[in-house]
C-alpha cells in the first residue's frame, strides 16, 4: 500500500495499534490573552483564528478524523458550551461528549476521558490534543501521531514536541536525550525534563543546543498507563476519576457521581501531575514534530499567524471587515461590522467587538491577561 | 467705572461703538480632521470638545453675549443643522438665523449677514467669530474685541491675531508692522500680509521675529466697509449678496431669491476675498490677542487641549466613558458606551463611535482628512 497526502505513513505497519486509538479533545480554557475576542461565552476554540472559515475546534476534529474516525473522538468541555460544540461537530455522539460542571484543569479532564474509555475498552490508546491550536501540515502531524501511538503501545507516556523555528518565550520546552528503540516509532527520543516558558536568553540557548522541543500539550498514551501515572502522583484524584468512570455509563448514577465527586477533584495541570514525574522516571517519550504549530497564545501570535510572518503587513480577521489602513501594520480583528480606520500605527493590535474594544501593540500582547483581571476587579465583568 | 472680570474694559469709553455692535457666528464646516467624531450630521461645532458640558457653539454664544447681548447675535448655518442649533441656543430669534441651502464658503456666509444687518441698521459694526473655536480667557477676549470694534469704527477691516505660544504649523499667520494711532484701540497694528500654514522652519522664524500672530479667523468691521471690500475683489458676489439682502426680510421674496441667487454665488474664503487684498492696501488692522485660543483643528490639538499639555497623560472625552488604560497616553473619544482598553500605546488617538472607529497617533492627526476622502471614494459615505 502506498502513502497518500492524508495517510503519509505505512498503513500496513500500523493498523493494529491505530485500531485501538481514540482521540480526546479537551475543549476548555477561555484564552484570556485573546480578550475581548475570546471570553467566557465565546472561548478561543469556538473562533476562526486562521481565516479558514471554521472554528479551531472543528479544525482539530477534521485533523483527527483520519487517525481515529468520527466515531472515536471524545470531547471534554464545559456544560455551557455543549450546544456550540455540538453545532460545530454534528457527528459527535452523546457517548463521546464529557461535560464538566466546572473547570478542574487538564489532569481531571483528560484523566476522566481515559478512565471512561479504559472501562469501555481495556487496552485503549488515547491521544489528547487541545481544541484551540493551529497546525497547517496535516500529513506531518498524522505521521508523528502514528509513531507516538506505537511508542504509547510500548508503554511510554508519549508526547509530540515541536521542532522550534525560533527562540519563542511563549511556549514551554521539552528536553530530549538519546533515541529510544521502539518498533514503529523510529524517531522516538527519551525526555529528561519539561521546562516552563523561558526568558529570551534561555530560549536562545535551548534552540541552539538542538536538544529542546516546544511543548504542544499533546499526550499519547495507553489509558491504563496514564491512570497509573496519575495514581502515582495524585492517588486521591485517581480514585475520584475511577469512581466517576464506574458511574458514567449509567444515566441513573452519572449525575449524582458528578455532583459529588467532580467539584472536589484536585485542580492540577497534566504537565505537573503526569509529564514531569514520568520524564524524571524515564517513562516519557517524545516524537519530534516538524509541522507548523501554534497555540495562538496572544495577539502577537495571532498577527504573525495571519500575516504570513511579514511584520510590515496588516492582518485582518473577521467576516465583512471594513478596514481602511494607511501606513499601518499589525492585526485588526473586526467583529462589530463598523468601519475601522488606521493611520500610521505600527505593530498595532485592534480588537473590535460589539461591547469592548482593545488597542495595544504586539509587544504588549502578553499583558492583555492583566487587563482582563483588572476588568474583573473594577466591575466590568459584563464584557468578559 | 471700574473693570470687572466680565467687562475688563473701560465702559465709559466704548458704549457708543459697542451699541452698534452685532456678533455673527458662521456655523459651518464639518471638521473632517476630527472624523469620525465630526461628520456631516454632527459637525464639530455641535460637540463638546473641552469637557465643559456644552457644545462649542454654545460656548461661542456665551462668550459673545457680554459684548452684543442675546438679541444681537446672528448665526449663519446649514438648513440641516437648524434644529440642532436652535436647541443649543434657545434665545436665538428667527430674524437672527440665516440658513444656507448649501455651503458657499465664508465670504458668502459672512457677507450675507453683513448685507442683511447693514440694510436693517446702517452703520452697524459686525464681528464674525467661528462657532467651533476654543477660548478659555473670556476677559482678555472681550478686551481685544472692544479694541477691535473701535478700530472697525475708524474704517479698518480688523482682525484679532493670537500671540503665538509655539511655532504651530496648523495655523495661518498674520504679519504685523507698526502701530496704528486709533482712539480706543491702543494696541492696534497694521497688517502687511496674511500667510498660509507654514512649514516648521518658517513657523520658527515667524515666532522668533515677534512680528507674526496666529490667524484666528476673527473679523470685526463696519458692515458697509466689508461689503465695499467684497465688491472690490468680487463684484458679482457683492451684487448677489445685496440682492439677497434686499429680498431677505419679506417672506414672500426671500425663498425665491435664495433659490435663484445662493447656489450661484462664488465660493471663496474671506481671507482671500477680503483680508489679503485689504492688508495689501493698508486697510487691515490687527489687535493682538493674549488669550488661549485653539481652532481644535485635529486630534493632536484635541489631545493637547484636554490633557493640560502633558504628553504623558491620557485624555478621555465622552459621557460615561469606560476606559481602562495601562501605560498609555494620548486621547480617547468615547461615544459608543463600549469598554475601551488601551495597553502600552503612546500618543495614541482612539475615536470610538457607534459605526466607525479611528486609531491613529497625534503625529498622524493631520492625515485624517485624507482617510475621509478615501472613504468617500470607496463607497463608505454612510459613516461620513
Automatic annotation (TrEMBL), chains A, B:
The UniProt record lists the MannoseP isomerase/GMP-like beta-helix domain at 328-375
SUPFAM superfamilies with a match to the protein in the record: Guanosine diphospho-D-mannose pyrophosphorylase/mannose-6-phosphate isomerase linker domain (SSF159283), Nucleotide-diphospho-sugar transferases (SSF53448)
Matching entries from Gene3D superfamilies are given as: Spore Coat Polysaccharide Biosynthesis Protein SpsA, Chain A
Top-rank taxon: Bacteria
Q: Where is the Nucleotidyl transferase domain?
A: 24-307
Q: Name one Pfam family in it.
A: NTP_transferase
Q: What is the name of the protein in this document?
A: Mannose-1-phosphate guanyltransferase
Biological source species: Leifsonia poae
Amino acid at each position: 500500500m502506498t502513502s497518500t497526502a492524508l495517510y503519509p505513513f505505512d498503513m500496513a505497519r500500523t493498523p493494529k495499534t491505530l485500531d485501538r486509538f481514540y482521540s480526546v479533545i479537551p475543549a476548555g480554557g477561555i484564552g484570556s490573552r485573546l480578550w475581548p475576542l475570546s471570553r467566557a461565552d465565546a472561548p478561543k476554540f469556538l473562533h476562526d483564528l486562521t481565516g479558514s472559515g471554521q472554528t479551531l475546534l472543528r479544525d482539530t476534529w477534521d485533523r483527527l478524523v483520519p487517525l481515529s474516525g468520527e466515531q472515536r473522538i471524545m470531547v471534554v468541555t464545559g456544560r455551557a458550551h455543549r450546544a456550540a460544540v455540538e453545532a460545530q461537530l454534528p457527528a459527535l455522539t452523546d457517548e463521546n461528549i464529557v461535560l464538566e460542571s466546572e473547570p478542574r484543569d487538564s489532569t481531571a479532564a483528560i484523566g476522566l476521558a481515559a478512565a471512561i474509555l479504559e472501562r469501555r475498552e481495556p487496552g485503549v490508546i488515547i491521544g489528547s490534543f487541545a481544541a484551540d491550536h493551529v497546525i497547517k501540515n496535516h500529513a506531518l502531524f498524522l505521521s508523528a501521531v502514528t509513531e507516538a501511538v506505537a511508542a504509547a503501545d510500548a508503554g511510554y507516556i508519549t508526547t509530540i514536541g515541536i521542532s522550534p523555528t525560533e527562540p519563542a518565550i511563549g511556549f514551554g520546552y521539552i528536553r530530549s536525550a538519546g533515541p529510544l528503540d521502539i518498533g514503529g516509532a523510529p524517531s522516538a527520543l527519551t525526555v529528561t525534563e519539561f521546562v516552563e516558558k523561558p526568558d529570551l536568553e534561555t530560549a536562545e540557548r535551548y534552540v541552539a543546543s538542538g536538544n529542546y522541543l516546544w511543548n504542544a500539550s499533546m499526550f499519547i498514551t495507553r489509558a491504563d498507563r496514564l491512570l497509573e501515572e496519575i495514581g502515582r502522583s495524585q492517588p486521591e484524584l485517581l480514585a475520584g476519576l475511577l469512581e466517576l468512570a464506574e458511574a458514567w455509563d449509567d444515566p441513573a448514577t452519572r449525575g449524582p457521581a458528578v455532583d459529588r465527586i467532580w467539584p472536589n477533584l484536585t485542580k492540577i495541570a497534566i504537565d505537573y501531575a503526569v509529564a514531569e514525574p514520568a520524564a524524571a522516571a524515564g517513562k516519557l517519550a517524545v516524537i519530534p514534530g516538524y509541522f507548523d504549530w501554534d497555540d495562538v497564545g496572544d495577539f502577537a501570535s495571532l498577527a504573525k499567524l495571519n500575516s504570513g510572518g511579514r511584520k510590515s503587513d496588516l492582518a485582518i480577521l473577521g467576516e465583512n471587515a471594513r478596514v481602511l489602513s494607511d501606513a499601518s501594520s499589525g492585526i485588526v480583528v473586526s467583529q462589530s461590522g463598523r468601519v475601522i480606520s488606521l493611520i500610521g500605527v505600527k505593530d498595532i493590535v485592534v480588537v473590535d467587538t460589539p461591547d469592548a474594544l482593545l488597542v495595544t501593540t504586539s509587544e504588549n500582547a502578553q499583558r492583555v491577561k492583566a487587563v482582563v483581571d483588572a476588568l474583573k476587579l473594577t466591575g466590568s465583568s459584563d464584557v468578559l
